[in-house]
Structures are given as structure tokens and as C-alpha cells.
Sequence to fold (278 residues):
Amino acid sequence: MPVLARWIEAAGIPTVTVTMMPSVAEERRTPRIVGVEFPFGHAFGMPHDGAMHRRTLELALHVLAGASTSGTRVDLDLEWPVPVREAYRAWQPKEPSPIVRKMLESRKGA
Amino acid sequence: MLVDSFKFLPRTFRPLYEGRGPFQGEEEPVWAPFVKRLTQSRIALLTSAGLYVKGSQAPFDLDREQMNPEWGDPSWRAIPTAASAGDIGVAHLHLNDEDLLADPEIALPMHLLGELAAEGVIGGSVAEHLSVMGFQDRSLRDWKDRTAPEIVAHLRDQVADGLILAPA
Fold:
């Protein structure tokens, strides 16, 4: 996804990437980054929490319009309101994805 | 920095992401200046949560991914702002889709963006936002050769001044 942002930016359209892995986005030279410490699948926050979505989206707009150099990163100062272990389990698919299943099978066979 | 980038990632996945540096051929900075005021700008959103409009659009191809685990559907969907939460489906094998189906705004806050436009915080929202499915073939060839140029053409067609991407 950071690479997709780069290709769109290179075509002349300014981008900001809201991501749970901002350090990875930095490594990939993403032009503008907003870091969120939220579980995967929840870039803007908890379901039905409009205030949380708004804080995230407004920060993204602020960084999109206000950043002055490529690589700008700003982290959102919001903690996920669910205990980490619970949230860690909750975002993951009920069945392992095909690539994870393949990795597990190859490990078993090794 | 405030955010721990690996807080919710299984430990075994961490080496797949950390310390790998830039994508090959993407080492140099890129930059398109944002030149207008937000109050005069039209903004677009892009999610990689695999959202699509049920009934009028095909889901991302998960059957082929099941057969070929290294492959992910590289196509994209235009999500009209008129779509309601009940119209949105999710096709993504790497996420639990319950929260996304309950409230797609957690990945694609297009109704909230519309509110910000109505309040005058931004000039406007595009009529059709964007969705992809984030699990992709490692080379990203199809995204580079086809999807990215098509997305750029769509954004130009929608007269977007800026794009907010949200990886799932």
C-alpha cells in the first residue's frame, strides 16, 4: 500500500497514508504518514465511534495539507480502548488465510 | 514515536515487514505539493479492506487466492458515496470482517468526509471513492501496470485534489 501511495503521488496527486505500521511506511518512503495504534482493519477506529473516526480523519487532512517534506510522519495520540490480547484476537480472520495455511503446512512438513 | 507499529501483528510476521527498506526501484522520495486550501479542495478516500458494493459489483476473487495462496486479486472498485453500510460487502481473507460489515466507516469514512464537506472543513468529497484488496503478489506487477494508472485516471476524472489511503 505505501508503494501504491508513491505511484499515485508520482502521478501528481498528493496522498496521505493512515497506517497501523507507520515505521514500515517510513521505510518504504511513503510521502505523508499518519500512524494509528489500532488493530488491522480499523484504520479510523472503533465501529460506530464517530468521534474517534473524526479525530483520525481530521489529522489525516491536516497532514495531507500541512506537511512540507516527503516522509512526514505524525502519530495519532489515541489508545485503543480494548485490552490488547482481546483486540489482537478479534481482528484476525476466523480461518487462517491461504498464505498462512501454506506456511503452517510447510513448517509441519519440514 | 507514539505508535508501536507491531502491537497487533503476530510475532512471526514481523520480519516480513521490518527492516526491509524501500521497495525495489522506489528508493527516492516522491512529492506532489498540496497547493490549495482544504476548504477549496476535493478529497478522495482509498481503502485496502476489500470493500465492494453488493449486487452491482463482483467481490474480489477469493476463490483464485484459495487455489493460489501467493496471489491476490489486483483489481479495484469505485465505491459511490450514496452507498449505505448495508450495501457494502467485504472480500478479504486476512481480516475478520465483522466490524467492517457493522460499520464500513472504520476503513472508508466517506459519510464522515461528506459531513466535513457540509461543515466547510473541506471543499468537497469525490462522488466515488476507491477500494482494493490489500493482499497482493509480492512483485505488485499488476498493481503497478494496471491498477495504479486506472486509479490515477479515476481520481483525475473525479477532480480529486488529494487522496487519503488507509491500508487495512
About this structure: Chain A touches chain B through 74 residues (CB under 8 Å).
